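Q: What structure does this chain adopt?
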Amino acid sequence: MAAIATVPEVAPGPAASRPRPRRVRVWRGIVLGVAALYFLVPMAVSFWFTVHTEGKGLSLGAYTRILSAPGFVPSLLLSLGLAAATIVTVLLLTLPAMLAVRLGAPRLRPALELIATLPLVVPPITYVVGIGTALRGGTEALAATPFWATLIAVQDERFPVVLVLAYVVLTLPFAYRSLDAGLRVIDVRTLVEAARNLGASWPHVLLRVIVPNIRSAIASASFLTLALVLGEYTVAALLGYQTFPVWIVTVSGNDGQLSVALSIISLLLIWLLLLTLSGAGRKRR
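A:
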């Protein structure tokens, strides 16, 4: 009779599927519960304020008045357009510059980082005063030159390019940090050299090699830029433009319920846009 060989059992290692300690799961639930209360309770109270009126009971009148409120659609479209233009501009400025420094002049990375993070130390009010002074002085100095029409065009109320330029500077530190984190996890030099050796042009390298590998970092930079532009009030208000946050503050003086309802809707809109950008930034499997 043939002997039957038995395979010895292998003892499970320490990393075998062990149940997590109950204490860890309890603390995780406590932390998540506190965070949920921190975010949801204020929103619930705000929502209750918009739907409840003393003597009238519950009503959704504050939300039905949003679309008919004068200035709602133009201000919202203006802020969304400014956000889109700011995202495109800041990505076009920072990503090629960061690649050029990483590939051609690595010693300039500290200088580039210093320039990119410099707007964090400039107070917004000082920044706005400087912009206003430059615009007034430039209008007078360039009155007899062809550049006067250009300076007037960038201040057009229908789409103020000057706000896009201001928002690019404000969002530059956040976009730089997000893109820098994405570029640190990939071997940029090897990818670029391989693509160039295969005959790819520089635009092809940037769009078809680098961008797909840092898609999540680009999405993060877009998140931060979108949130800042849709919530920024100081620059637009002091320069005299009617963006969505400025319009909300203007309406709040006449109708408190409408302004709170608009704040809730804008917050939900930002979340929806962020989720959309997040889905677009995920890699396809």
